[in-house]
TrEMBL record, chain B:
SUPFAM superfamilies: MetI-like. Residues 95-292 form the ABC transmembrane type-1 domain. It is a multi-pass membrane protein. It comes from Comamonas squillarum. Keywords: Cell membrane, Membrane, Transmembrane, Transmembrane helix, Transport. It is found in: Cell membrane. This is Glutathione transport system permease protein GsiC. Belongs to the binding-protein-dependent transport system permease family. Part of the ABC transporter complex GsiABCD involved in glutathione import. Probably responsible for the translocation of the substrate across the membrane. The keyword Transmembrane applies. The chain crosses the membrane at residues 9-30, 99-123, 135-153, 173-191, 231-253, 273-299.
Amino acid sequence: MTTPNAPESADRAVAAAHTVSTAGAAAPSLPANLAASTRMRTPMAEFWRKFKRQKLALFAGVFIIALVLVAILAPWIVPYDAENFFDYDALNSPPTAKHWFGVDSLGRDIFSRILVGARISLAAGFVSVAIGAVIGAILGLLAGYYEGWWDRCVMRMSDVLFAFPGILLAIGIVAILGNGMINVIMAVAVFSVPAFARLVRGNVLALKQQTYIEAVRSIGAPDRVIMLRHLLPGTVSSVVVYLTMRIGTSIITAASLSFLGMGAQPPTPEWGAMLNEARSDMLNAPHVALFPSLAIFVTVLAFNLLGDGLRDALDPKLDN
Amino acid sequence: MYRYLLKRLLGLIPTLLIVAVLVFGFVHMLPGDPARLAAGPEAGPETIELVRKDLGLDLPLHQQFVRFFSNALQGDFGKSIRTKRPVSQEIAERFGPTFWLTVMAMAWSVVLGMFLGIVSAVWRNQWPDRLGMTLAVSGISFPSFALGMLLMQYFSVKLGWLPTVGADSWKHYVLPSLTLGAAVAAVMARFTRSSFIDILKEDYVRTARAKGLKETVVVIKHGLRNAMIPVVTMMGLQFGFLLGGSIVVEVVFNWPGMGRLLVDAVEMRDYPIIQALVLLFSLEFILINLVVDLLYAWINPTIRYR
């Protein structure tokens, strides 16, 4: 059903299939005679062929998977307890064989704290973006499909949300809900919603003009089926690219709020909160600030590189 | 052009109204009783009632809103709970440092970002591109508060070249504006590059080259002007990002600006200040977006005749 009507070449067909079907969808059955010059590929295979050429993005993806595993296993693999182990003989010690990333001013092992902190930061990034993407996608899908007053309403609301700089909105929400990581995640989710709503709406408006949508409509498919089975999959590739980038941004925003003292509270080893704690001792122990900074940087960098790679692999315009 | 301007200005009114309602509602969504907060922890029930009357919190909601709105239009946001001084006065003192910090950060980051973007596009897939884009992707990945702390540690503490905190001389502006602008420069570089790559593929660029023009003329005269259109839009969006980013950077550098005032106010539950600042920040953001749209329409005539 997602097969384009009469593509001139298999390559074009695959590129078009990308824009109208999910990257992971089943193989569209292309007319065989068109595949004479180019070998036939499913959208997934085509995506993989382009994506695996991007070594950096591939590496970033592997790194993120490893990081997720580390985050899940953190409580069992840390060398020391992240909150309740104090090495009083090594206060502010720089990195040693015993403490790989050194020790902070209270005697806690920074390496262990970074590993446990990965759990919090990744959870904050994934959960807030997932909430924002799901709500935003539903609103955008409905707005783009039905247009009319509902569309104007949704777009006006996102205009209003866009009228606040992101972190300001988050600070306002945290001021109402109170400090804490859960509230930070909610706040970050709220300002992801309008971005996803606009993205999906724009995609749906364009996809609605395609012939295959006219076709499903003419065989009498209900709105729900058209939206969920025929329009939503078409938005997946751009949503996935944006989602990946957005996770990086959200990790930074969540860490910023913790750094400002509004998110995770000490002694929780959240990376932003660790940096805030390290501020008072920058003179004696700059390494206490260095490692959480690097942790945030490397994690966000990995998401951005992965996002860049996905975009290049999914964008049919770059097909040359 | 005037019709477009009028249309855009009228279009702002609903957005502004909703923002005002939200900011007004903010106080009512805060946990706890604002009158009790304003009266202070030792106040008895009579005092709290007096304060409630004084703040107008005993009036029906719609009357409160009218009062809030007309007061806000006259620049009256009440008194700070912490210092007991008028909010407008507190904010007026903090406006300058934040404004100049934002402008300086914007200036250097746009110039550097566009330069990196153009260089990367012209030498696409060669070493200047790789270097420029590595810098750019690092720039968007490095959190500003961490960058600020590291810059301060190195240039102020270790080398002693620049002051650490305060906003008294131009030297004080160097590190905070670098920190604030880094992410913007990175975004601008990436954006300029992709918009420039598209432009360089255009037929009129090929024609210009075929005429035998020097490559620098082709890039600057035929490329830059056309690439400016999307770049200007991006610049406006980044201004909003700078306004938000200044909140974090001001805390790192103990900057006497509006961002730090906001963070302190949230900590102290100083709601009149929070209310006024949120309104002011969003107002600024909306106005900047308007200016960008107008600029955009001025550069690209097809927009204003739509």
